[in-house]
Amino acid sequence: MAAAWKRVKANKGSAGVDGRSVQGTGEYLKQAWPDVRARLLDGSYRPEPVRRVGIPKPGGGVRELGIPTVVDRVIQQALLQVLQPLIDPTFSAHSHGFRPGRSAHGAVLEAQQYVQAGYRVVVDVDLEKFFDRVNHDILMDRLAKRIADKGVLRLIRRYLQAGILAHGVHSDRFEGTPQGGPLSPLLANVLLDEVDRELERRGHRFVRYADDCNVYVRSRKAGERVLQALRGCYARLALRVNESKTAVASVWGRKFLGYCLRAAPAGEVKRAVAKQAMHKVRQRIRQLTRRTRGRSLQQIAADLRDYVPGWKAYFRLAQTPRVMREMDEWLRHRLRAIQLKQWRRGTTMFRELRTLGAAPDLAARIAGNARRWWRNSAMGLNRVMPIAYFDRLGVPRFS
Length: 399
Prior knowledge:
Largest sheet: 4 strands, mixed
Mean pLDDT: 90
Strand content: 5-15%
Number of strands: 10
């Protein structure tokens, strides 16, 4: 429990339906923990309902999250810390999501190996509202085959059945495992491992990360057969395939965990950032560097340092250095335009450009078109505000 508390405290997060923050829960548990502990041990503990919040999906729509109270997050985290070492070793080697020592990078690299070996058609399966559709009875049956402790099973079922509070209205939950609880990813892997084992039994090459599953085959005809078999596997678990987002298609350019694969010379397969992910990062950079926000380049650079390194770390497997260099050039172009707009008046612009070392004719030409910031940003300004200028400001690089 002490280790679980440290983990929840480090993760921070918002309050549940009781309104208690992590800090407030710490104060509360100093008095209440003996009672909570006693109820956990005698089997009378009842979890609080989860607080429902919606977050926008990149492709449109809303993803529903269920935020448990901090007390319930601590208890779930403690359960996870005990159960994961027992259950995780029984999972398929092709499952990469939410597992110790595994990551999305491992899944992408495994997918690349299959494509490099000649499996150029992918069965890209999308499940319809997976976390909202998990059948409690089926999940508990699969869990009972791995856990003998009746008290633990009873507590997990109570977490599954904990109600939902949204807009002040309480509703019961009869299916689904709320995203937002520490235990949900492990439970998802328990349920979906059955499909992994069936794919292994049939000798297929596949990769799964949470509910994202890609199966790699040599032909579309083989892919259609695999998809039909998968529909049956998921139906036995009371899960439905989202037919509008599921496809049997060529692997080239198909998005998987933000990456895509591209054919390179000499038959080599290269990893790249998917088009959708590139569009998303450009949109985020535009938000951080809007010319109407009235902030200095130093402030903008600080915002970029909060965002770019994390993005770059996730997409470090991309084998497309030219694309990253182009992102750097585009970002610096935007920042030069911002600086010109902040100078605004032609006389101020001329003076500041001269201070930076611009030749008089260049400074005069740019200042003469003072309001054409984007065009001016490309008008020889890269010699006045070179890469080193932005490095000194602390602007992070993509390449």
